[in-house]
Amino acid sequence: MPALFAPLLLPATWARWLHLLVGTVFAGMVLLVYPGTEGVSTGRAMLLSGAVDVPLLCLVALVPAVRRAEGVQARLLLVPAREESIGVAPSASWADRGRTALWLVARVALGMAAGAVSAAAFEAAARWPVLAVPLLCALLWLVVLAGRLQLALAVRLLGPSAAERLAAAELRAERLLERNRLARELHDSIGHALTVTVLQAGAAREVADPAFRERALEAIETTGRRALDDLERMLVLLREAPEAAATEQPGLDRAEELFAAARAAGSPVDAELDVRADGLPGVLSREAYRIVQEGITNALRHAPGAPVRIRALTAAGALELSCRNTLTGKGSPRRGGGKGLRGVRERAVLLGGDCEAGPDGTDWVLRVRLPLRLGR
C-alpha cells in the first residue's frame, strides 16, 4: 500500500499539477475573450477556444525568448531527473520554433484536460462526500500520469537540438583538453622543482663547504619561487578569472633558467639554442620550454650528476629539440612510459610533430620535432 500512495505525495507531483493548471488558466482566459461562456455549450465553447488557441500559440512560438521561458519553467515545475535534458536556450532555427509551437499546443491541451478532470472530480466529491477520498486518489494518479506525459513531451520538444548537443559536446571536449593541458603543466613545473630541490638538498647535506650550501639554498629558493609562480598561474586559469589571459607563461627565451638550475644541482649542461625564441609562435615557444624542462628533469632524476646536452635548431620548416645524457645507472630505471614522457608526446602530437625517446648507445636521448607552421 505505501508504494501505491508514495507517488501521490511526492513534491514533483504537485509541482507538475501546477504546471498543468497554468495551461488551464491560459485556455480559460482565451475562452472568456472568445466565444465566452453565456449561451454556448461547454463542448462548443472548448472547440471554438481551441480554434483560437492554436494560431495564437503558434504566433507566440515565433518569439525566440519564448522557448527559453518555457524551458526554465519546465525545469522548475516538471522536475526532470537531469535538468540539461530540457534546454533553456532561445530558438535559433525554424525547427526550434516549430518544436516550441508543438510544445505550447500540447501543454495547453493537456492543461485543459487536467483542469476539466480536476473540476469534475472536486464537484463529484462535494456532491458525494463518501467518495471524496477515492476520487481524490484517482485524480492524483491521473495527475501523476499526465505529469509524466508532459515531462516526456518537454524532453522531446524542449530538449537541446542536434546543433546544441554538438556545441555542448565540443565545449566539454575543450574543457577536458584544457584540464589535461593544465595537468601536464603542473606535472612538468612541480616535478622539475621537486627534482632540483631534492638533489640540491642532498648535495648540501653531504658537502661541508658553507659557500656550496649557500648556493644550494639559493637555488632551492629560486626554483621554489618559480614553481609557486607557475602554481598561482594555473590556479588563476582554473578559476577562469578575467586576468587569466594576461598571465605570463614561460617560453624558450627562459630556458637558461632551467640550465642554471640543473648546473646548480650538479649536472653540467651543454646547451646550444640555434633559434630565436621571439621568432617562434607563442604556443610553440611555450611548449618547447616545457619539453626542454621535462628532458632536464628526467636527466636529473635518472642520471644525477651526468652531463646534459641540449640542442635546439630550426631546419626544414621545423623546430628540432634534443636532450641527451649519459646513462649512469645512479637513478631509478627508465622505461620510457612515465607521465612526463607521455606528456611530451602529447604536446608534440597536438602541435603536429613527433617524439622519440630511448637509449642510444651509452646515452639516453629525447628527440622532438615540431613544425614551425602549426597545423602542418
3D structure, described in words:
The chain contains 11 helices and 5 strands; from the N terminus they run H-H-H-H-H-H-H-H-H-E-H-E-E-H-E-E. The protein has helices spanning 2-9, 11-33, 42-60, 64-78, 94-127, 132-158, 162-206, 210-239, 255-264, 282-302, 339-350; strands at 269-274, 308-315, 318-326, 354-360, 363-371. The protein is elongated. The chain starts with a helix and ends in a 5-residue tail after the last strand. Mean pLDDT is 79; it is low at 241-247.
Entry summary:
By secondary structure, the chain is of the alpha+beta class. The protein is 65% helix and 10% strand.
Blueprint of the fold:
Elements (H helix, E strand, L loop, with lengths): L1 H8 L1 H23 L8 H19 L3 H15 L15 H34 L4 H27 L3 H45 L3 H30 L15 H10 L4 E6 L7 H21 L5 E8 L2 E9 L12 H12 L3 E7 L2 E9 L5
Parallel strand pairs: 1-2
Antiparallel strand pairs: 2-3, 3-5, 4-5
Features:
376 residues, alpha+beta, 5-stranded mixed beta sheet, 5 strands, 65% helix, elongated
Helix-strand topology string: HHHHHHHHHEHEEHEE
Helical residues, percent: 55-70%
Helix and strand composition category:
alpha+beta
In order across it, which strands form the biggest sheet?
1-2-3-5-4
What would the principal axes of the Cα set say about the shape?
elongated
Count of distinct strands: 5
Oligomer: single chain
How can the largest sheet be summarized?
A: 5 strands, mixed
What fraction of residues sit in β-strands? 5-15%
User: What value does the average pLDDT take?
Assistant: 79
What is the terminal separation in angstroms?
Answer: 69 Å
Helix count from the secondary structure assignment = 11
Low-confidence stretches: 241-247
Backbone CA Rg: 35 Å
